[in-house]
Specification:
Anti-sigma_ant; about 30% strand; Anti-sigma factor antagonist; alpha/beta; STAS_dom; Transcription Regulator spoIIAA; anti-sigma factor antagonist activity; STAS_dom_sf
């Protein structure tokens, strides 16, 4: 599966859907797309990581930097990390948990939940 990032809008939310491996080679693409979204005036961002099957520390770094950027604009960042069960859970979710940064993010199981105004995050 080739890496790609596609963008859309859902209500007040900009949505970036990420597919493939989020690693040293591909993370600059996501970093640039996040910056482009903010430069276009969107401060409510959902990053859908449902189709990311590998994430290394550079990918985590991009997510942490995106959180910092959005917070500096008094914006909102939500991640979609579906729970596919104990044996087939989200790789990104496991990586964020292992690195101890999962609690920094507002995580949702799907796009409907992530873009709902009264949405509460999944527990860490």
């Amino acid at each position: 599966m080739a890496f790609n990032v596609t963008g859309a809008e859902r209500g007040d939310w900009a949505v970036l859907r990420v597919r493939g491996e989020l690693d040293l080679m591909t993370s600059p693409v996501l970093r640039q797309r996040v910056h482009d979204v903010v430069a276009d005036g969107h401060h409510s961002l959902v990053v859908d990581l449902s189709d990311v099957f590998f994430c290394d520390s550079s990918g985590v770094g991009v997510l942490v930097a995106a959180r910092r950027l959005i917070r500096s604009c008094q914006g909102r960042l939500r991640l979609i990390l579906p729970d596919r069960g104990a044996d087939d859970g989200s790789h990104v979710n496991r990586v964020l948990g292992a690195l101890g940064v999962r609690r920094l993010f507002d995580v949702h199981p799907d796009l409907d939940s992530a873009t709902a105004e009264d949405a509460g995050p999944l527990s860490a």
